Amino acid sequence: MEKVIFSIKYEIIEDKKDEFLDVIRELKSVVKAEGLESYNVYSVKGKKNVYQEIYVFENSEAYDNYDDVADGRTDLLMNKLSDLVKPNSTQYLTLNEI
What we know:
The protein contains 3 helices and 4 strands, in the order βαββααβ.
């Protein structure tokens, strides 16, 4: 089966970087699901305060079911994260392995 990569790129509010890093550290420890091979966050080279989350799923079924397995702690952290992101800066991309 083909892997699926889901990415979210956004710019955070400039004076919220420390809070952002705290949320990401905690998210990295709680984001887990069956079929999710990895979850990582990267800073975008040459772009201040721009980050990209990368989720790698073992197949399309795992990707399709991912939203169904979120727990309360993950939801809370995702809400905190969304408060730190600049409005209208979020871009989503889904890649299917061929």
